[in-house]
């Protein structure tokens, strides 16, 4: 099933659009709250289309992702009862319970790991608020984790340039499914820890 290739191609078209930074900011924000497609799918083609702006793109993705994380935190902190039916409907309820346990065990470190890795950051943002994690450590861990991830993606793509793009496009389907399997594996791992 071809899913990530067509998505990547669409993001490449959007990356060349004059409003591309707005699209990146929007995708990055909502990805930290509920959107299933990772920001990297939009960030990589934008860094390829404008390699000199890689650091600005990484910064934009980082800041808007943290903004989305703070919104997710607010949903968890102020409205977990209203958000819980959605968490159950999308099948994240067991994961949410495990994430709550991880917050109590590891605190701010689990937020950093969630921000950097391909595990579902959105679950951690809502759970961080519901667990009443202090906001400043939440924001700092998100900022550092997301920053390292997005600056690294933008830099690698900008550095590799057009010579890497055909290779990247050729393997995007594999990379996308590997990330999906990693996310699934993280969910299974979290469920097995309970």
TrEMBL record:
Transmembrane segments: 20-37, 57-80, 108-132, 138-159, 171-192
Gene Ontology CC entries for this record: plasma membrane
Source domain of life: Bacteria
Keyword annotations of the record: Membrane, Transmembrane, Transmembrane helix
Domain VTT: 37-156
Keyword Transmembrane listed: yes
Listed name of the protein: VTT domain-containing protein
